[in-house]
Amino acid sequence: MRSPAASNAARETIRTTRPETNHTDHDETVRSDHTDGERSNHTDGERSNHTDGERSDHAGRPETREPPVIEVSNLTKRYDEVVAVDDVSFSVEQGTILGVLGPNGAGKTTLLKAMLGLLVPTEGTVRVCGIDVHDDPERAYRRVGATLEGARNVYWRLTVRENLAFFGGLAGESARDPAVKARHDTLLDQLDLLDRGDDVVNELSRGMKQKVALACALARDVDVAFLDEPTLGLDVESSVDLRRELRRLADERGLTVVLTSHDMSVVEDLCDRVLVVNQGQVVADDGVTSLVELFRTSAVRIVVDGRLSATTEQAIRADYTVESWETDGDRTRALVALEEANDLPALSARFVEGGGRLVSVNTVEPDLTEAFLQLTGSESTTRGTR
Ligand SMILES: Nc1ncnc2c1ncn2[C@@H]1O[C@H](COP(=O)(O)OP(=O)(O)OP(=O)(O)O)[C@@H](O)[C@H]1O
Q1: Residue 160 CB neighbour total at 10 angstroms
Q2: Quick one: pLDDT at residue 207?
Q3: 102 CB within 6 A, ligand 1
Q4: In this structure, which residue's CA is closest to atom 11 in ligand 1?
């Protein structure tokens, strides 16, 4: 329905409205469509001190805006001829849940691994909480938790609590420390795992294992969680629970989350902001609502009874963008793009004039899947009706 030119124009719009990362001008990097103001008002005062020394002023004096928790600058990762990440720059404010989307091979995992300091970039830098993850990986590691391969990171022969103790121990924390134990208890409680704490992970359901993996990523009092496909394989209920928990951690503790997911509903429900990656480059960086708005041309699904002639079909196709046209006996189902809702009566009239009897007319709104497909150059074949 939208011409490649329209998609390109949209792509250009997204790239040009998003300022390049400017680490000295935070106003530039703060986006109006996010609730940054609300998010910076966290209940855990310690959390706002995430930049190793640069902290907010709790004594009532005017505060300066804090630097972003994550700053990626001109990051490039090449594997011989393949440019997996191509000159990517962006920054993330505290308490944001950022979704990284992209088709297979787009560079999402490479980007995440480079942000975690697990890959040496060909060029560019990543700073987490003000720490360069490649110059000082150990110090950076203390501030981040990650699940890169779901529950496979977790030790299945250990109990849930032993896993938490192990992952906390990697950063020198002792589970015997009452403060650490209290944190683990709170985490288990929040994830509804408190009564399973002494169970061997192997005996838990898949969804529970996934939650244990998340608990391990957060076992230390981290500022940032990198989660690769956190809801993969979860049933609907567990997926909803996990999303709720991540939202709560972001809102109440100021946890910053970077996640990848192929599940658009997860991203649409959960993320404040979406980075769409394609061929190693960021092709869009915006709020979910803004991205969907960008492709807000509606379509209408019309069902009519009565045989429509080939001439009628051709005439409608000549005047409108027909996304699909299916005839099944006497029934025709057509999906037609409309630039203006006002065009609907005229379009319906064309079907009636052609001998059809209207059965139903439904407006179909675009969603994140549609925006994603447009941005990555794929074409949508179906639209969901809302
Ligand atoms: N170790 C490696 N050596 C060579 N090429 C690699 C390596 N890792 C990734 N690549 C290539 O880099 C590109 C990006 O891969 P990456 O795994 O980051 O994509 P992705 O977006 O995570 O994909 P998927 O959604 O399929 O997991 C791909 O072309 C991939 O083949």
Answers
A1: 26
A2: 81
A3: yes
A4: 84
Kindly state if the Cβ of 2 falls inside 6 Å of ligand 1.
no
CB 120 near ligand 1, within 6 Å? no
Residue 133 DSSP label: T
ipTM > 0.85, yes or no: yes
Give the number of the atom of ligand 1 that is nearest the alpha carbon of residue 107: 18
Nearest CA to ligand 1 atom 5: 79
Residues facing residue 125 across a β-bridge: 73
Q: What is the dihedral of CA 64, 67, 255, 135, to 10 degrees?
A: -150
CA angle 25, 29, 30 (to 5 degrees): 115
59, pLDDT greater than 50: no
Q: How confident is the model at residue 5 (pLDDT cuts 50, 70, 90)?
A: very low
- 300 three-state secondary structure: strand
> How many C-beta atoms lie closer than 10 Å to residue 324's C-beta?
14
Give DSSP secondary structure letters for 10-47: HHHHHHHHSPPP-TT-HHHH--TTS-HHHHT--S-GGG
Backbone angles phi, psi at 144, to 5 degrees: -125, 150
**CB contact at 8 A, 299 and 337:** yes
Structure tokens at 33: 């469509």
Counting every residue written for the chain, the total comes to 386
The atom number, within ligand 1, closest to the CA of 85 reads 14
Which residues, at least 6 apart from 16, have a Cβ–Cβ distance to it below 8 Å? Answer: none
Answer yes or no: are the C-beta atoms of 192 and 211 closer than 8 Å.
yes
Q: List the domains of the chain with CATH numbers.
A: 13-293 (3.40.50.300), 297-364 (3.30.70.120)
Ligand 1 center to 235 CA (angstroms): 27
- Given 3-state DSSP classes, what are the helix, strand and coil percentages for the chain, each rounded to the nearest 5? 40, 25, 40
Output the CA 99–ligand 1 centroid distance in Å: 18
